[in-house]
Amino acid sequence: MNLFTTVFIMVRRDLILALRHKSELLTALFFFVIVVNLLPLGVGPDPKLLSKIAPGVLWIGALLATLLGLPRLFAHDYQDGSLEQLSLSPHSFTLIVLGKIMAHWLVAGLPVVLITPFLGIQFNLSGPIIAVMMATLLLGTPVLSLIGSIGAALTLGVRGGGVLLSLLILPLYIPVLIFGAGAAEAYRSGLDMSGYFWLLAALDILALFFAPWVSAVALKVALE
Amino acid sequence: MNLSVSNLSCQRGERLLFENISFELNPHQWCHVTGENGAGKTSLLRLCAGLTNPLSGLIKWGGIPLKEDTDRFHQDTLYLGHANALKEELSPLENLQLMSQLDGSPATEEAILTVLDRWGLLGREELPVRVLSAGQRRRVLLSRLTLKPCPLWILDEPFNALDRRAIQTLYELFNQHLEQGGLLLITSHQAIEMTDGMSVNL
Amino acid sequence: MNWFKYASPASFYPLAGKLIPYFAAITVVLLAIGLWISFFVAPTDFQQGEGYRIIFVHVPASWMSMFIYCVMAFWSALGLIFNTRLSGMMTQALAPTGALFAFLSLVTGSLWGKPMWGTWWVWDARLTSQLILFFLYLGYLALTSAIDDSRRRDKAGAILSLVGVVNVPIIYFSVIWWNTLHQGASVSMTKAPTMAHTMLMGMLIMALAFWGYTIAMGLKRVRCIILEREMSSEWIKKNAVE
Amino acid sequence: MQWNSFSDFIHMGGYGLYVWGSFGICALAMIIEPLILQSRNQKIRRQVKRQGGQP
Fold this sequence. Notes:
The structure holds four protein chains of four kinds. Chain B is of the alpha/beta class. Chain B has a domain at about 1-75 and about 150-160 and about 185-200: Rossmann fold (3-Layer(aba) Sandwich), CATH 3.40.50.300. Chain B is built from seven helices and nine strands; from the N terminus they run βββαββαβααααβαββ. Chain B has helices at about 40-50, 70-75, 90-100, 110-120, 135-140, 145, 165-180, and strands at about 5-10, 15-25, 30-35, 55-60, 65, 75-80, 150-155, 185, 200. The longest helix of chain B is centred in the C-terminal third of the chain and has 16 residues, at about 165-180. Chain C has one domain (about 20-185, about 195-235). Chains in contact: A-B, A-C, B-C, C-D.
């Protein structure tokens, strides 16, 4: 089976399914926007303070928004028996899982990246910093979906799954958070930030190679 | 190509379901797995489909252990379980298109419509599966039998929720499949009205 | 000697029972020596006074928490490769003790930090990564206690601890990177007291005592787990398990 | 020997609370954990006995 065909079939399938659930589709995005907008209400409207903490807040928001959709990543397919059928398909199961992860990113991660400029303006961020934020989010959010899929697979069908998933996954998100929010910070201090981009890219590659495979193994364990 | 099962033992949780099951299924043959509720019929079928690993024993397809050539085995088998494995948001047509792509033998729209017609589902091919009845869903699932050309069918309670006419259609398909050299491993709580079958009692 | 013989719970159970007293004895002796060195042999530190004596429990506890995580990953890898049941039980037997040491390391660390730096907690690279290690332990414990089926529990736990062990260096590195970027913090933990010979000795002996304690606890817990899982199996019914 | 008296030892040069707090919590943990395990062990042994085994 062709590598791209498998991934493409799955991405298209999951996107169609997501589109038929319009309410679910936008939940992650609304959640992100609301969390980020609650912050000024918590810490006060001082523009200097807000623009200082904005990158961190946007990143934490992105983390939580990704986490929100993760329990559903495999749960529906697990309940209606589709996951079982997918694991029996002659297509590589790892690639099928990769397709599902990519669809998750397109639904949960990409909208977050695209809405960042509007939130950045609310937080008084300058144009270049917004650009840096978008770039790091673009590089970082796929890692969140990839690592998250491992947690989703491990907690599939387990009682208390959603909360458990956050406990498992959030500590593993720390490097992405540090490099992602750090880049904007470095830019502001006038430091070289290429290192952050390289590190995020390295995490991307590492996660891309290992996460779908580990998730596939964990899913087979869950299906037994 | 034959399916051979030797000395199979299976454990669910901490409980031993069955021990030392052996049988061999050859082309043109069908096998009825019987047993009381909870005896492990579904577990045996899932083992034979390669979904779970046995506690001990070996399953071979065409002389090769399952785990050694899963790709070919998945090409050659169709396993239909209790769950319908249909996406509620999609129509029967879309579901079957998707399934056939994932099975590695993409079917054309006409081919799918022909099959749906045979199962009496024409006219419902564009409705979301959500609105279909249990029997209709089951028939959509069974449409896959003719869409994926493969020798080994493993069917868990395929007659569930089917009406007389659909059961008749299913028998026709079974006979056709066996004539063409197919193999059929099946569980059913009702008697199967076919001759020359073997049976495995758990 | 056939090592695989002991990979089966039935033959490991009595062996573990025999080993526990030895490790308990080692622990008690080493603890006595270690405590004696900590309080009576090691001299007063000229910078930190007597307060530095916390090092004799803090550092061994931190070492053990990291070491146990690696041992868990080792058992997990073994379990996934050879499909031995004992490996999963061993991993689960070690996890609570590892989490305990991570917790003790955090508490003693902050008890040390208060008199030395005037604050219970600093976002120092070492403290932060120790905290994250504690979270990883909690995650493991939460996952394994939430899964009822023992085979799935073993495998899911093994996958999680391996994913964790791969991530630990990445997390540690990223936290150091983060810490050097935000040098604003007024205190730095890197100014540890110069390691005198006796102090190192004391720490090593305490670490060995903790190690003996961990093994004794691990064996004790693995025996409980074996009994719980195999309660209905023949060897427990037939054999006098002491 | 750097301690002139017992109260000196307890006082720990002004760090008594922190030093004894640290050693105390470790001691506490290392006493409680075996006790918890012991009770878990006894519980499971009783259960095995009820099932007709010989624990």
